[in-house]
Amino acid sequence: MYSLTPGFRFPAIQRGLSPAEILLTKTNAGAGAAVLASAMISQPPAWAFGVVAGVAGLINVSPGRRSIARWAAVGVRHWRERRATPDLAKSAGTTRTWTLYPHHGTMQDSYQRASFHEAFSRALTYVAGQSRAAGIQVHVTHHAEVGDVIAHTQTISVHIPKNLIARPERVFATVEREFTALGALAEVTPAPAPALSDSASGWAALEDGRYAATARITGWPAETGGDLMANILLDQHRPPRDRRQKNRSISVLYRPLPITTARLSAKLGKAAAEAFTTDQVKQDMHAQTSGTVHDALVQGATLVDVDAYLTVWGESPEHVTQARDDAQLDADEHRLRLDWLSGQQHRAHVMTTPHGASTRKGAIL
What is the rounded (10 degree) CA torsion for 180, 170, 261, 224? Predict the structure, then answer.
């Protein structure tokens, strides 16, 4: 609940390869093999080698945290989504939501906290194994109002798309038993998502009078002791007299991959990472990551696509802008990287409500 990394993922990009990237990698690998094989019979034209090398470069050369192809995909999605606001949070399927409060002292004790994360990871692995195709989503939200008294609520939502599995109720019942062992669990019906009344590039105004600004967490430290959320959300690392008034929400959307898909993603991810990496340090980093992922898969774990979001709330545009600046300072203190989703605030705040559980993958970057 308080950890952004309870499962196993690709640390560099926060999510596995997209279906388009998997298809492109396979196609390029097949074309490259065919060109090399044909070279043993007759010399292929020079442009054939150029095409294969060019596509491979687009997939693998990464200026920054994404490959060139992914930068292009991100740009197209930003351009498209700024001009259209699809109803992202009403995907066909079944969603179940619970409030969950860990047993007293769990998050304060490092051993109990590690056991909590391990149990949550087992639940994700079980969910991943219930279907042949990826699609089941586990969405965790935290909302805190910090002042003289801290008001803190948190939910877990599980969304199963329509026709993905034959008996979704069996999965809900089993997952509910898993979560019951973690703390006080109660099924709830979330309140409707707040409707939008106005928006700007840096904030969204809601009909209930609040203003919101949302950032996607694009990077966080690998080692946080599992208390990162508690620090940035509740200010538990500061004495009570130094805590600042703030209203924040954090959510993490987990998409556990089926075992076969996870193994394929690990294989293709390793091949794509190593193909055009000339930096020896980056090669060693990829090798270390691949080894960790390989060991986890051998032990029965699975890969999990992770998306995390931070929303700050205010009573006016000025207030929410100040809250955004404060959140950025806290993120810098804890070495988090935030992408404030400029131009997408008109719907981004939905991701930090339970309704974000049914959001289709890739809708918000």
Answer: -10
Q: Which residues contact 227 (CB under 8 A, 6 or more apart)?
A: 2, 107, 113, 236, 237
CA distance 134 to 119: 21
Long-range contacts of 19-24 (CB under 8 A, 24+ apart): 20/73, 21/59, 21/69, 21/70, 21/272, 22/264, 22/265, 22/268, 24/55, 24/59, 24/69
- Predicted TM-score (pTM) of this structure: 0.76
pLDDT tens-place string over residues 45-59: 777 777 777 777 777
Distance, CA of 69 to CA of 76 (rounded, Å): 11
DSSP category for residue 241? G
Tokens matching residue 106: 């769990």
d(CA 323, CA 309) in angstroms, rounded, equals 15
Per-residue tokens: 170: 């069996």
Question: What string of DSSP letters covers 314-361?
Answer: ESSHHHHHHHHHHHHHHHHHTT-EEE--TT-HHHHGGGGSGGGGGPPT
d(CA 12, CA 1): 22
Q: Is 135 left (phi over 0), alpha (psi -120 to 50) or beta?
A: left
